[in-house]
From TrEMBL:
<protein>
    <submittedName>
        <fullName>Endonuclease/Exonuclease/phosphatase family protein</fullName>
    </submittedName>
</protein>
<keyword id="KW-0255">Endonuclease</keyword>
<dbReference type="GO" id="GO:0004527">
    <property type="term" value="F:exonuclease activity"/>
</dbReference>
<feature type="domain" description="Endonuclease/exonuclease/phosphatase">
    <location>
        <begin position="19"/>
        <end position="190"/>
    </location>
</feature>
<dbReference type="Pfam" id="PF03372">
    <property type="entry name" value="Exo_endo_phos"/>
</dbReference>
<keyword id="KW-0378">Hydrolase</keyword>
<dbReference type="InterPro" id="IPR036691">
    <property type="entry name" value="Endo/exonu/phosph_ase_sf"/>
</dbReference>
<keyword id="KW-0540">Nuclease</keyword>
<dbReference type="GO" id="GO:0004519">
    <property type="term" value="F:endonuclease activity"/>
</dbReference>
<keyword id="KW-0269">Exonuclease</keyword>
<dbReference type="InterPro" id="IPR005135">
    <property type="entry name" value="Endo/exonuclease/phosphatase"/>
</dbReference>
Length: 219
């Protein structure tokens, strides 16, 4: 089984290092994570939070060129049996009213004989005038994954992070079959995930729900 955990670091609160370690190791009886999918990995000064430094036993995909690029992070625990291939940060939406550029982080993760292509995003609020651009950018990414499935059937895809809208609305916008979430945090995914155990939990250090998905081998 592979445990994915999705969280917003809520940079205004501080204590990011403690929160990240909790997410990795589990809290309140939660199992340790194999994969962390994080957004807002920046501090109150808009400087990157160095997730690799906080998690020395993990492989971390994060662009720390600036706070905007550093916001979306994918981390894989070494020894979890998950092979990974990173990509560069891709622009999700350009800056708008009271919002900086937003970036998407993508990885191809290989476990249980399946390739999981996952995108970590943080949609701008509707009031910024940029949310529709971000959603459309993600829709184009999802369409590319659907095209991949025609030549790579043992693949599955998912989009996760802080949607700043309900996961069901995001699922509709992406024309996707499945979604799960709590508050603004969500996970939208296509076919091929098999049995997925989904929970959400409150963690000390963030005012957003933390999502946990435990996956088994695709059947």
């Amino acid at each position: 089984m592979t445990v994915y955990r999705v969280a917003n670091l809520t940079y205004q609160w501080g204590n990011d290092a403690r929160l990240i370690r909790q997410l990795a190791d589990g809290a309140n009886g939660d199992a340790p994570a194999d994969v962390l999918l994080l957004v807002e990995a920046r501090d109150a000064d808009n400087d990157p939070v160095d997730v690799a430094k906080i998690l020395p036993g993990w492989d971390v995909s994060q662009d720390r060129a600036n706070g905007a690029r550093a916001g979306s992070v994918i981390a894989v625990r070494r020894g979890a049996g998950v092979r990974r291939r990173w990509t560069l940060s891709r622009l999700l939406s350009r800056r708008g009213r009271k919002v900086q550029d937003r970036y998407r982080r993508v990885a191809a993760l290989r476990d249980h004989g399946i390739t999981t292509r996952v995108a970590v995003i943080h949609n701008p609020l509707p009031s910024t005038g940029r949310q529709a651009d971000a959603v459309e950018s993600t829709r184009r990414w999802v369409d590319r994954q659907r095209a991949r499935l025609r030549i790579q059937p043992r693949m599955r895809w998912g989009v996760t992070g802080d949607f700043n809208l309900h996961h069901a609305a995001m699922r509709t916008d992406l024309d996707a079959p499945n979604s799960y979430g709590a508050d603004v945090m969500g996970f939208v995914y296509g076919h091929g995930w098999g049995d997925v155990k989904r929970t959400h939990q409150e963690y000390d250090g963030t005012d957003h729900a933390v999502l946990t998905l435990t996956t088994k081998e695709n059947r």
